[in-house]
Amino acid sequence: MVTEETTLELEEIIKRRIKDQAWDDVVRKEKPKEDPFEYKKRLTLDQEKSKLSLAEIYEQEYLKLNQKKTEEEEKPEHVEIQKMMETLFVKLDALSNFHFMPKPPVPEVKIVSNLPAITMEEVAPVHVSNAALLAPEEIKEKNKGGDLKTDAEKTPTDKKRDRRKRKLMKRVKLKEKERRQKCLEKKSEPGAKLSRKASEAQLKKLTKERGTSLLKDDGRDKALKSSKAFFSQLQDQVKMQIKEARKSQKRPKKQELSAQKLKL
């Protein structure tokens, strides 16, 4: 009830506050603009040392990124509290404003992205055999000595290495040759057929002895395989005969000495 006493009391209170300069200005209200699910994204800083090792932490992060995340199940109590808060805030907004305030937008669809943002595709075409996708090292083994070099590209160490290899191979071949020669000498018998090298060595040994001479084959008795070779050989024989005839004619005759000319 508005009476004269209440109005007088209000006037006295107003006068006293004016004298004391105790003003109560209206504080402007601003609703914070936040995402409804912003509280889920906020990180809680933990000052305690983690019990997991660094490798285990990286493993968990990798599994979270690659594996499908299980959708979080909301508790029914939280859902009920959220609905009650929404209805209460709508009523308070309607009472504390002079004009109609619509409801704040609520996300109707919850988007869960389990797939990566970028999907990588293979560069190679689909209709290609797997043999064409092999690396060069898989087809042919890599040379242990390195890449092939020309003589101009080789360093002094490379040249010395090649020289040592050649000398080693030469020594190995020489030892093998000597071993085979010794084996043949042991196995050779008086009536057995000798090898070419053994026969050459035996022939040299015989020619060194006195009273032996080696007859050389001039190749005249060889079979002629073409007419050209036959006529050339015939011509050579004729020339040789002519030369021998001329030499016999040019020989001076021996002077016949008589006993009468020697007499005094």
TrEMBL record:
One Pfam family per UniProt: Mpp10
GO cellular component: Mpp10 complex; small-subunit processome; sno(s)RNA-containing ribonucleoprotein complex
Keyword field contains Nucleus: yes
Keywords tagged on the record: Nucleus, Ribonucleoprotein, Ribosome biogenesis, rRNA processing
InterPro entries registered for this protein in UniProt: Mpp10
Any single GO BP term: rRNA processing
Skewed-composition ranges (Basic residues): 161-174
Signal peptide range: none
Similarity remark: Belongs to the MPP10 family.
Name this polypeptide is given: Uncharacterized protein
Record organism: Micrurus corallinus (Brazilian coral snake)
